[in-house]
């Protein structure tokens, strides 16, 4: 039966800059499939994501500014989309779509937050960033895959299309490439090195070309199934390029310039144009004629656009959508309406903050005044960036894509207008109670007998303990502690155990959940059971405290990622 509703294929790449594609005037990279897609699509010249990955994904899948969804960073428990947010697969599934994702999730790492908890019928979550022989979470079961991850993800996507071509489907394909570590098949790398490019740049281009060829394989399957004309295809990247790699060193400035033909300012992670302007091609042969759109558009617009074209209704009307449907523009009926569009990076400042993963003390409050080079507002051709405690820079992006000419003194009225809008937006945001959240972990989640509470998301630290992106560290002496948000979903008995590396003998820790506390001396080289507690249902805190340890310098315990923390198991007392 011919589909009445369009299929949706949303392809997202990771760290592919605006200039990492042939059609955007890059003379070195070879992307024939993507170039043809761009030529046959409505191609957005001025399309913006957030400057880093998790924020973009939050906005893309909710249609809302990422800070409203609880996301504010890329790790540290600040990359979890609040579970009361409505996500795109939930809406489409409710509207009769079969839903699947294969690739990088990065919208939450534990139960309740994973894609198969958020509306995807089928989800293959790739481990970050394993570009070869990747371990994947398939609907809650770990699977070892073989071969290049880009190829494997495409194979899985093709299988999904084979199985579901007779019904409307939503396929979300967020590739891992070309995020570092830069790795690609030798044939790709050798080809670009033969052109005189460095190994690092050759590998990046090889990763993009590998994606290009796999997208071609995906399109061939859509053609084979005779459903290409009834499939809405969206191709975009999550942020701008970056020049550092853990295995291939850093690119030179000249090499970064090759990746940036428009010579835009900044790169991934910055508020400047090259941090957030990304490729975006939207193809739907039945309704959209190919053309170039120069109007400003946002990743937040994808959610309402898909809802519009599928005639789907928002599941929770109390959550306002910040994006707008691009359907009138895609159909050629109107330009993208002028509006204020706010963007931000993964940085958040408060008085006294020194380190990236530092936990804000309870005595501090976020203020608009403390923010700098991390928030901006765009209206029409003008962009205002808050650059300091009380300094701002205004740019005419149409005339000055490089953001080199500050016009704030030339246009004081426009500067004050945009400053007022930016301040009102940010103040409302931090007073909403929804922004800058630290993840809550769920105990007693459905169909789960055991839950690991990791240490990377502290809401408070005491003593010498420090936070990092994936765990806390510097547990050295009595009094060291951290507090974690938890939510007990069912009144029950639970066994608590410590899982981590014990360095010093005679180390005793306390673990407290709400009013219930257990204590134990940790055993070297094995998981230590601490005791059984009866927990009432409800939101509370879990506190890990170092009560005592042996004398001497250095850490008493260490936590790793992803397997260490406090293990909580249901106890059958029937």
TrEMBL record:
InterPro entries: Alkaline_phosphatase_core_sf, Sulfatase, Sulfatase_CS, Sulfatase_N. Residues 6-311 form the Sulfatase N-terminal domain. Keywords: Calcium, Hydrolase, Metal-binding. One of its GO terms (molecular function) is arylsulfatase activity. Gene3D superfamilies: 3.30.1120.10, Alkaline Phosphatase, subunit A (3.40.720.10). SUPFAM superfamilies: Alkaline phosphatase-like (SSF53649). Belongs to the sulfatase family. PANTHER family: ARYLSULFATASE FAMILY MEMBER, ENDO-4-O-SULFATASE. This is Arylsulfatase. It comes from Halolactibacillus halophilus. The gene is arsA.
């Amino acid at each position: 039966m011919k589909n009445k509703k369009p299929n949706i294929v949303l392809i997202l790449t990771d760290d592919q800059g605006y200039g990492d594609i042939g059609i955007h005037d890059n003379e070195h990279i070879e992307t024939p499939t993507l170039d043809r897609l761009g030529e046959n699509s409505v191609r957005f010249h001025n399309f913006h994501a957030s400057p880093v990955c998790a924020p973009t994904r939050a906005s893309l899948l909710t249609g809302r500014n990422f800070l409203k969804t609880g996301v504010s960073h890329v790790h540290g428990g600040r990359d979890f989309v609040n579970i009361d947010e409505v996500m795109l697969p939930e809406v489409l599934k409710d509207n009769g779509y079969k839903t699947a994702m294969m690739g990088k999730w990065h919208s939450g790492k534990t139960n309740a937050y994973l894609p198969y908890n958020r509306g995807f019928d089928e989800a293959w979550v790739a481990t970050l960033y394993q570009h070869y022989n990747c371990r994947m979470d398939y609907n809650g079961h770990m699977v070892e895959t073989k071969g290049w991850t880009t190829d494997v993800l495409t194979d899985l996507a093709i299988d999904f299309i084979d199985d579901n071509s007779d019904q409307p489907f939503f396929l979300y394909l967020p590739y891992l490439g070309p995020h570092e570590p830069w790795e690609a098949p030798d044939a790709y790398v050798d080809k670009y090195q033969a052109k005189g490019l460095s190994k690092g740049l050759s590998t990046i281009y090889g990763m993009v070309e590998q994606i290009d060829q796999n997208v071609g394989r995906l399109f061939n399957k859509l053609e084979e199934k005779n459903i290409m004309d009834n499939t809405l295809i969206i191709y975009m990247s999550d942020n701008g390029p970056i020049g550092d790699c853990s295995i291939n060193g850093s690119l030179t400035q000249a090499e970064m310039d090759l990746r940036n033909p428009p010579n835009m300012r900044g790169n991934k992670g910055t508020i400047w144009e090259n941090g957030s302007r990304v490729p975006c091609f939207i193809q739907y042969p039945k309704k959209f004629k190919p053309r170039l759109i120069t109007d400003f558009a946002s990743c937040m617009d994808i959610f309402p656009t898909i809802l519009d074209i599928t005639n789907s209704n928002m599941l929770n009307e109390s959550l306002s959508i910040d994006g707008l449907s691009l359907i009138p523009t895609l159909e050629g009926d109107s330009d993208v309406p002028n509006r204020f569009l706010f963007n931000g990076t993964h940085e958040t400042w408060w008085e006294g903050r020194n380190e990236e993963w530092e936990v804000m003390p309870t005595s501090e409050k976020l203020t608009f005044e403390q923010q700098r080079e991390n928030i901006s507002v765009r209206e029409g051709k003008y962009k205002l960036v808050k650059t300091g405690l009380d300094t701002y820079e205004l740019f005419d992006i149409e005339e000055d894509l490089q953001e080199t000419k500050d016009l704030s003194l030339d246009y004081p009225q426009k500067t004050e207008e945009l400053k007022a809008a930016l301040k009102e937006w940010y103040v409302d945001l931090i007073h909403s109670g929804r922004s800058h959240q630290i993840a809550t972990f769920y105990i007693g989640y459905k169909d789960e007998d055991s839950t690991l509470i990791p240490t990377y998301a502290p809401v408070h630290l005491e003593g010498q303990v420090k936070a990092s992106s994936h765990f806390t560290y510097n547990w050295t002496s009595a009094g060291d502690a951290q507090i974690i948000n938890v939510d007990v979903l069912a009144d029950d008995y639970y066994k608590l155990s410590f899982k981590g590396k014990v360095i010093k003998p005679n180390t005793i820790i306390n673990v407290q959940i709400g009013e219930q506390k257990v204590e134990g001396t940790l055993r070297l080289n094995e998981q230590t059971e601490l005791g059984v507690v009866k927990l009432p249902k409800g939101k509370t805190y879990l506190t890990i405290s170092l009560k005592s340890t042996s004398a001497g310098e250095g850490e008493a315990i260490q936590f790793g990622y992803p397997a260490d923390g406090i293990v909580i198991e249901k106890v059958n007392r029937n």
